[in-house]
């Protein structure tokens, strides 16, 4: 075990780390928003220096030449995509915290970039007030401090642990990081969803219904992706018990057409997407007949969801057609946020949705 004196010395190092000044790079090709950013950052007291550029190549050069604590970039670039730029920054400087800037209506692209490039936060454009920019930058700096402390503290304590105890500690940290990543995505989705709802010129009743729906999507996302064990048999049983009602017009079944187990993380994603479809149908139509089938290819799982909609003469559970369309759109966005390819086909008496989930 390390000595108390060694531990105190490491704590002093953490304090010195806290006192240093941070450096932020911002890539924004949009001149109007770039001027807003300059105006905001030059008018407030801040504990960091920054450089703003319109060129992603220049941003890369800065990262290559000095330590950059936070790297912010618009996802809408000319020379390369935002995801490509963040991937380069991740390779050049893994310790740099990456933050995306984007419009509120680009939900699918934003979440895909967050998952792919491990960006920490999202700044919703345009930046109108100081808090739109300062708050996420300060949060990114605090996250960098926390991450550095965690690494140093873990190194200090794990040196005296046995292999088994160290493995357990590493698993705990991995779980905490995973939980934090899902919380991060949830917060981004919620902010973007509320921005869309509030700017949609909707009636009060419809706005409340949509916000409740978005809240359900996000809460279910968190519970499914973290609490679910990813076991097909267990998930199949839970879905059947929840959505199949004997002797009613609400029926559901799930099966997979291969013997090998589904990768747990991918099974959780499939679990979430199935719930989204069923709940959307349940809210809009009331009754449903839904079957979900999982097929396997070499590089992906194919999720096929077959839904028999109510006849035109039947009364919808949600009478307002605009609300039904908005709820359906939100469900589509929730699925599209994974960045997977999907195709929906209308057949004579049913709707078929095919979703490719890469392994």
Q: Can you give a write-up of this model?
A:
By secondary structure, the chain is α/β, with parallel strands linked by helices. It has 2 domains: 4-160, Response regulator (Rossmann fold); 204-358, Heat Shock Protein 90. The protein contains 11 helices and 10 strands. The strands form 2 sheets. The protein has a 5-stranded parallel β-sheet with strand order 2-1-3-4-5, with helices on both faces. The protein is globular. Residues 1-19 have low confidence and may be disordered.
Number of helices: 11
Describe the oligomeric state of these chains in a short phrase.
single chain
Radius of gyration: 24 Å
Q: Please bin the fraction of helical residues.
A: 55-70%
What separation lies between the terminal Cα atoms?
Answer: 42 Å
Can you tell me the CATH topology of the largest domain?
Rossmann fold
Q: Quickly name the level 1 CATH class of the largest domain.
A: Alpha Beta
């Amino acid at each position: 075990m390390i000595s108390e004196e060694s531990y105190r010395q490491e704590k002093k190092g953490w304090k010195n780390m806290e006192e240093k000044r941070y450096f932020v790079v911002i890539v924004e090709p949009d001149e109007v928003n770039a001027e807003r950013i300059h105006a905001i950052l030059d008018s407030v007291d801040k504990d960091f220096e920054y450089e703003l550029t319109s060129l992603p190549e220049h941003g890369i050069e800065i990262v290559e030449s000095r330590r950059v604590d936070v790297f912010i970039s618009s996802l809408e670039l000319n020379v390369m995509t935002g995801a490509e730029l963040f991937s380069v920054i991740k390779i050049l400087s893994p310790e740099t915290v990456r933050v995306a800037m984007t419009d509120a209506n680009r939900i699918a692209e934003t979440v895909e970039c967050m998952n792919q490039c491990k960006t920490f936060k999202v700044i919703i454009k345009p930046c109108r007030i100081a808090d739109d920019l300062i708050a996420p930058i300060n949060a990114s700096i605090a996250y960098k401090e926390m991450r550095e402390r965690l690494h140093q503290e873990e190194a200090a304590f794990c040196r005296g642990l046995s292999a088994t105890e160290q493995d357990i500690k590493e698993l705990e940290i991995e779980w905490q990081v995973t939980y934090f990543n899902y919380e991060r995505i949830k917060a981004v989705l919620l902010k973007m969803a509320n921005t869309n709802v509030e700017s949609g010129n909707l009636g009060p009743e419809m706005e409340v219904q949509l916000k409740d729906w978005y809240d359900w999507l996000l809460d279910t996302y968190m519970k499914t992706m973290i609490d679910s064990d990813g076991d097909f048999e267990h998930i199949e049983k839970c879905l059947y018990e929840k959505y199949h009602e004997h002797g009613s017009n609400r029926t559901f079944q799930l099966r997979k057409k291969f013997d090998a187990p589904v990768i747990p993380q991918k099974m959780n994603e499939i679990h979430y997407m199935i719930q989204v479809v069923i709940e959307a149908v349940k809210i809009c139509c009331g009754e449903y007949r839904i079957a979900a089938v999982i097929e396997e290819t070499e590089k992906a799982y194919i999720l096929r969801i077959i839904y028999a909609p109510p006849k035109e003469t039947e009364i919808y559970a949600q009478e307002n057609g605009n609300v039904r369309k908005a709820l359906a759109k939100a469900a589509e966005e929730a699925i599209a946020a994974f960045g997977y390819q999907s195709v929906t086909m209308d057949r004579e008496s049913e709707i078929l949705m095919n979703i490719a989930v890469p392994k």
